Amino acid sequence: MPPKHSLGKGLGAMFPDLLNNIGDKPAFVLCGIEELTPNRFQPRRAFNDADQRELVVSVRKSGIIQPIVVRKAENGYEIIAGERRWRAAQAAGLKDVPVIIRTADDREVAELSLIENIQREALNPVEEADAYQTLMTRFSLSQEEIATRVGKDRSTIANTVRLLKLPDAVKKALIGKGITAGHARALLALDAQGEQISVLKVIQKKELNVRETERLIQRLKNASVKKRSVKKDPFLTDLERDLSSRLLAAVQIRTGRKKGTIEIRYTSTEDLNRLVLLLLDRK
User: Fold this and answer.
1) Are 72 and 180 part of one and the same domain?
2) Which of 7, 67, 90, 100 could form a disulfide with 151 if both were Cys (CB 3.0 to 4.6 A apart)?
3) Which CATH number belongs to the domain containing residue 104 in this structure?
C-alpha cells in the first residue's frame, strides 16, 4: 500500500522545486489579470458553485492573500495552481493579482492541478476519474504511481477510473449529485448499460441508499443467473434435434405452464417455400 503522507505535507513538500529559494527573490510579483490563462490540465469543470461565490465575496473584501502559482507561457503566464482565485479575482473586478513564477513541465502541472483540487475536495468523482485517466494515458503514470502522489490506495484509483465506463446518464446524475459514487460503483456490477440506466431510474425514484441499491442489483443478477440455468426437458431437446434433422431447419420448442410454441427458422424465400410444401405434405 502506498504511503498516506503526501496530502498532509502540501504542494511545496511534494514539488519542492516550485517553492525553492523563495528567499533569493521577492515572494511574489503583481501581474495583470489578463496576462494569465487557465491551466490546460485543470481537472475541475464547474466553477460556479456556492464555495466559488463565497470566494468571490472574500476576494472583493480582502483581496487575494495566497499568490497564484504560474509558469511562463508563449503569451503571458499559464496558471499552475490557483485558478479558483484567479476566476474569483476576475468576478470581483481586480486588475492585478499576486503570482509566484515557477518552472514546471506538463506532467508536474497536471499533477499539481489534481492534487490541489483533491486537497480542497473540489472535484466531483467524474472530474477526478478524468484527471487520473489523463495522468495514465498522456503521461504514462501507473495507478500505483498516481496513488503515491495523491496519497490514496491503488484500488481507490482503479475504482474511480472505472466510473468513466458508465453511460452518460449515470455520469450526469453523479455530477449533479443525484446519486453518490457508492451508487455508481454498485451500478458497475451490471454488464449492460441499459440495465444500469434502468436501475438508476429506480434509485432516483425510490431514493434508494447504496446498501439498498447493492441488494437490488444482487437480486437482478441472481434472477438472471437462475433464468440462464433453467434446463430444458431432455425429451424436448431430443424432439428439437429430430425435427431439425427432418425439416433441415432450426427448430426451437418453448413451453409454458399449459401452452407453448414451436419455432421453425428459414433462411430464404426458397427455404420458406420448401418448408411450407413439406409441412403441407405437398411435393
Assistant:
1) no
2) 7
3) 3.90.1530.10
Phi, psi of 36 (to 5 degrees): -95, 145
Specify the DSSP element, H or E, that contains 70. strand 68-72
Q: What residues have CB less than 8 Å from 237, skipping those under 6 apart? A: none
Cβ neighbours, 10 Å, residue 131: 26
123-165 residue pLDDT tens = 889 989 998 998 899 888 899 999 988 888 999 999 999 999 9
Q: How many domains does the chain have?
A: 3
One domain for residues 131 and 260: no
**Annotated active-site residue in 83, 111, 127, 128:** 83
pTM: predicted TM-score of the whole model, two decimal places = 0.61
Q: Are residues 75 and 179 in the same domain?
A: no
Domain with 258 in it: 234-279
